[in-house]
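RidA family protein
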Amino acid sequence: MKKIISTVNAPAAIGPYSQANMANGVLYISGQIPVDPATGKLVEGIEKETHQVMKNLEAILTEAGMTFKNVVKATIFLKSMDDFAVMNDIYASYLDAESFPARETVQVSCLPKNVDIEISMIAHQD
């Protein structure tokens, strides 16, 4: 059975999708962009953007009763691979080195609202 996960501590969906869905103990989190849920505004600059995306993901995980330790897969979309090293350091700072998820990072030509980064995740209940 599918359960929709939603929190005011992450940006509201801007289209026909949910922030996340839980099915059979697996949480599928929609791609998060750097929107501050308190203001509804975008943050700018890859450092601030990456922190905001990770905070948005964390809020959704928390709503589902999970943490980054539950994440088994992440997909990262960057507008420029030149931002990879900065993004990677910030991304890693939110995770436990003993439970890094599987991941791919791809460069794309454009993202929603013309942001520099979007991250989606899949997490599993222990």
